């Protein structure tokens, strides 16, 4: 049976305990958790840790009911070998030894036939634990397998922010509670990062702060707003430019601050002369008065905190949109004040030494880097995606589900169906990627192994200790990497042969941080920099200390910059000198009159939790939200089946008629499994994998489509 038992001998059948850990999932919060271990040795209630000043006792409902996932009857519990055709679902249970031997043998054969780059270890953020997520990189570098360019999530947002600030850090996100105005831009934290709302609502209750939400539809977060700003997808930069135009026009701009801390405020002001509210209204769909009201509020409120999300950057102009929205805080001088400034991610503050964990000492820069987002193109032999190299004939997949989450799904499916492609998947459930594998291995969940976490959306390093024993036949990611290293002849390389706790110590101790033993007592480390550093009052991250209104779009800094062998990507040459609206997006046209965004759902997290009964029941079914006027024009009624498509493909889906977005905008919430859709194909059939300027990324919210009634 799948019964987890507590590690500590103190947690016997006659006593229960509360243990500290951290949520492992792909979310900026990395919430500090308290987990009840029942007297029977099972995980019970999961709740937020009150003692953690960011989590503040609040977590999302899907994680609060984690026991439903941990003890799910469909959880993978034994290694399996495919017996029938790919995707047929016929499996044979095998031993761990046999499974690992088969994977290693397949990799050896692939390397012998096509060279080491024929193997592509493929992973992502199904766990944010440093050890269990990133150890696969150590095997990659040791064996000279194809590199992994992790582009799908963060590139546009991080690049746009860092091109302005020169660093990936910002004001303490807990300062939202001390703000007089919180602007939540391009993110839906009620559904995706609930702690943002904890601190924003506290400011409203205690200080009378206003909450402004900027998004493309009336999301759950929008319903909490004092001011709603609903614009067309991909037009955020136009709105930002108009706000800055008004700031210069009406005297809200802090010229003294900019003279000290910005590169070319005079040039920006001249550039923005024609970026009027009327100009922005025609682009965004916002009434002029709404733009004026928004600009007046932030312009007259010194303590304005711009909380900038990922969602609005998942457009082909997303990097520029992030930079433009970020620039408002510099024009207004908001950085000077506690509760003011602009925050996106704190990724650079944590000082973890990951060289040994990831094996960077034996990384060879001549090995090709393949783009995560373009897995469909890679597996179907696109020479550009393959960097003009040989085919990929073997995959090891951990912590991700590309058969569901990757763009250009028809190419992805075609690639996975290749008879000459060997696929090993290490997973917790039989995902749609696992369905296409040759070998499937059962993986532990976060309470069943030790790991270390860092919270990009806040300021803590957190320890996630092993709380319960996993089922007897389930193994950690680290175990799989270590065992393959032995079979592939690289187990003697530095970094191999260490336990999770040893890796954690080696990440922390070299930089003077407390190790595993101390963290097991302290639970987390607050890494927030001093106020002056977090607010860039000692200068921004460039050598001259100045914010860049004029970023170098082709050569500027980024935390995940494309390697020199690839160089800048996408139409970066079309980006202007200063913040501006750049229509490199998929604009609607006569053939495709609608713009589609694939926004997150409240009860799913990417493809995770889509397997749990409660999450599926709360979400209902795959639907596309349509404006009532658009539905009426097409003769579509609520609940009807419609067809939606573009040059990449088409699918059928139920219509949900509701106001709350601009006309011509469609919203499909939630990354439902492909098989949950009417024809077995999911929403990513419609999304593209062409790289976003300047350093790549997937513009999954930027899709022009047609929409018709289903006449079948």
Automatic annotation (TrEMBL):
GO terms for molecular function: iron-sulfur cluster binding; metal ion binding; molybdopterin cofactor binding; oxidoreductase activity. Residues 16-74 form the 4Fe-4S Mo/W bis-MGD-type domain. Transmembrane segments: none annotated. SMART domains: Molybdop_Fe4S4. Keywords: Iron, Iron-sulfur, Metal-binding. PROSITE patterns: 4FE4S_MOW_BIS_MGD. It comes from the Bacteria. CDD domains: MopB_3, MopB_CT_3. Belongs to the prokaryotic molybdopterin-containing oxidoreductase family. This is Molybdopterin oxidoreductase family protein. The lineage of its organism: Bacteria, Pseudomonadati, Pseudomonadota, Alphaproteobacteria, Hyphomicrobiales.
